[in-house]
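Section 5.1 Outputs to date
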Amino acid sequence: MRARFLLAASLTLAASTSLNRLHAEDRLKIEAERIFTLGAQPSAKAAHAVQTHYRGLPAAIRDAAPIRYAYAIVLIRQKRLNEAGAALDELAASRPDDDAVQRAKIWILLTLGEQAKALGALEQWQKQWSGVATDRDEVPDRDPTSDTETAEFLGALSGFFAGPWHSRQHTDDLKKLREALREHFDGDAQAAFDHGEGQVLGHYLRLHGELQQASQKARETAKKRTDRAQADLSQAEMKLNDEEQALADKDAKRSDETKAKLAEIDGKLEKLDQRHDTLVQQMVPLEQAREALMIQFLPEPPPGYRLFERFQGGGAAQRQAFARANIVSGANIPHNDRLRRMLAPIVGQLTLLMGQAAQVQDGIMELEMERYSVAGRRQQDSAKIAGKKRDLDRRETRLKYASKHLNTGVAGNTVQVRAQTTRMSLFSTYVEFPFEREKQRVLSMLKP
């Protein structure tokens, strides 16, 4: 009876353990599918949803290798390569013999352009191979297709180093690396290595040919554009030279016209000055004659004047001043009418000459004003011409700069060419991450 009870208890415990294991595997598969569903399409919202869901899982599920790997490859799909790399590093520490994890790690490093880190990870991976059982098929849970996939991946890596990244390493080093990678495989795996290598090199050669054609086309287009620009530049330079010459001719013409006009005015002024001097000279004898008549008709001094004159010590000058005062006023001049008759012709000529002198003086003033106006207009004109000359100088400077820029040569380095060059240097251009394949690998591992 006791034996029967123990047997029943043992069977019940075994069934319970088997059921719990089945439930755990079901939960892992459900969570893996949930992670794949959330991260199916790349977007910031999807990436956030995947990270939130993963971090909210219980530790026992979150730390399970299939779940961690599923999370890492979904991050790769979401283009969160740095975060995916960190997750794969943690996973590789606990599963150093997992080729899929190692391939994903190196794919990320090459895609990020981290050559040194990729080579370091590759070296560590090679050391792991030597530490794995001699018969790799005896490794627990080993995927039988892993060798072929790894060989094809490493062949692609060798082709990438020999093609797009050939300038980053010495030829001998590339040869040694290829030999070291290829010798790990034989048979079908070695053929897969050669296939992967050929695929990348062939793709690279096609892209390189397309790049050469695009670059040549860009150079031809740039040359046509440069030739047109050079023709336009030459025409602009000719026009500028013509404008500069026309401006110089205009300046010289205006200068000559101004000089001629000023010379003409100066000639007229000289003649008027001479005429004025002549009139003044004609007036001098008339003034002297009038003075003589006035002195001739001096009146007798009043009684007591001579005594006054002696007392004052005066002389002829005082008498003449006294006489002029009396002549002008007409007082005490007994012969005033006769003096006026005698002075009349002289005064008439003086008046005529003075009128002519006044006209000459007015003419001089008009000419001086005209001279000032001509000089002022020339000054303003010179300022305008100087401003235009500065504009022409600035245009000439710009044309010289444009000419220097055009003479630097024609390059085919367009935006499209640069984009193609960048694309050719990316590992992901030649080897896309096999998300669907790795997804199915994870789900197949979790089948009950």
